[in-house]
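P.,

For your records, the input lines for the assembly:
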Amino acid sequence: MRFATTVIIGAGQSGLAMSKHLTARSIDHVLIERGEVGNSWRTERWDSLRLLTPNWQSRLPGYAYEGDDPDGYMTMPEVVSYLERYAKASGAPVQSETRVSRVHRTDTGYEVTTDRGLWRCRTLVLASGACNVATVPALAAGLPRNLANLTPMEYRNPDTLPLGGVMIVGASATGVQLAREIKASGRRVVLSVGNHVRLPRLYRGRDIKWWMDVTGIMDVRYDAVDDLDRARRLPSLQLIGTPERVTIDLNTLRRAGVEIVGRLVGLRDGKAQFSGSLANHCMLADLKMNRLLASIDDWIRVTGQDEMFTNTGRPESTEIPAETPLGLDLKDGTISSVIWATGYRPEYAWLDLPVLDRKGRIRHDGGIVDSPGMYVLGLPFMRRRKSSFIDGAGDDAADLAAHLHSFLGLQRAAA
Amino acid sequence: MTTDISTITSVDNGVNVTALFGARESLQQVPEAAQFKWRASCEWLNGTHSRSAIGSFFGLGAEQNRSRTFTVEADHPQVFASEDNAPTPVELVLSGLASCLTAGVAAVAQRRGIQLHSVKAVLEADMDIQGILGIDDEVRNGFGAIRVHFEIRADASEDDIKAVVAQSQKRSAVFDIITNPTNVFVTVN
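Structure tokens returned:
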């Protein structure tokens, strides 16, 4: 049995940012990591993936990108070595290759059972990520058995798929990127599109992420939005990080030969059924994009920078052919695999505490979990719009480290 | 979209948004009460002419009785050798879609602080009747496509009005019923 004032579960950007802030407050702690630093980036992503945020935006407490390509996008090995260097520079006490099997409450705090022994702590920080498992809809059970059926966590590159066409379900960041890459490998690709958010990679000469940062959109707090539940459920942006800084959207994919269909709503007798709501989903996405771009235009005008950032116009509306198919035969042999790009969720099977709601989500107020001295980091829009981004880890960790520190003080005063 | 309370209160589309939001909040606490059952009964009159009666429904955990029972008739037109006593069922489907989307437009506009002056929807649907007549098995019975056109006058920009219509579709029951498959179970006696 070992003791630390704080146990942090997970040594990715969130855990490391928290460690940095706890060190600054002289709070002894340990990071328990199932693999090595940045494990999810290291083992659970496809080969070609790059960050969707530019290099300059991977800011962490006391640490920033210093390479010669601030506008580029890191590959996964680059993200991993970036985080490794950060862990080393900040002296984070990481206990790697240690898997947590149970967390439960004790009289004085929490007990963490791992495959390398037991830890006790007064405060606990869950920094194990928002994307531990891929969400697959229940209707996947109706898929014909001869089709390969995989999630993006299993996908590596087009060569690892069986020969033949691919149906990709979901058109957020993951779905559109896989559609682009698999189509480029010469296969038939059908992309099923539901609710999505589209944005151009560049607008008025700058990265869209730069605009969202400079105009303050990423810093909007969780207690300042109208419908937080909805904001937290928002799908990831249709973006891709490429050296050419290309925009990816349904128009570019269609021109590349990807077949765009509506949301998958049924699998029956070996046929996929698609919703007739595609046109509306695209209209919603176009309107949403234009609202965001209009707010950027306003910001430029109000700050008097119209001459600096030439108005290059809005991206074209999404084109939906009238003859969009409502069904797809999955037994005629042209489609051989299905990829479920239908989202990710955290996994808390090891959490033996009554802190989950009826949908299995952790109950928290801006990261302060509904259990004394317990915190969570890195969830979508947890404290700010940027909470689930590398760039958001620092501010959230600073707030929660302060809360944790005063919690320890109150506990000591009560003892 | 951000709207301040003062705009919301000065806008009146005849929709009680406060009550709707109250209902949404309380149903989040008691999801069982969100389970509704809608009903209709229908009686054959003569030929293709029939009359449906629509009365009670179940919701909020109890039977909900109305003060009256509504009736809706349907028939087929003379080109189908019928008497044209009432609209065809497929026209009633179009009417249902239009009414659902229009109600949604009013509610979403109210919520977003947009005063409506007029809302008109015109609908048209394509049908190849070789399907229903059994001439060609590859032709479906139902609509090939439905087009809805809204003419809306309101105190808002063109994009804001489009966004209201898009949101109305996103939250419309009839739009969902028409665009997505539903299991239908029919029993006899």
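Two observations worth noting. Residues 278-302 of chain A form the longest helix (25 residues). Chain A has a mean pLDDT of 96.

Regards
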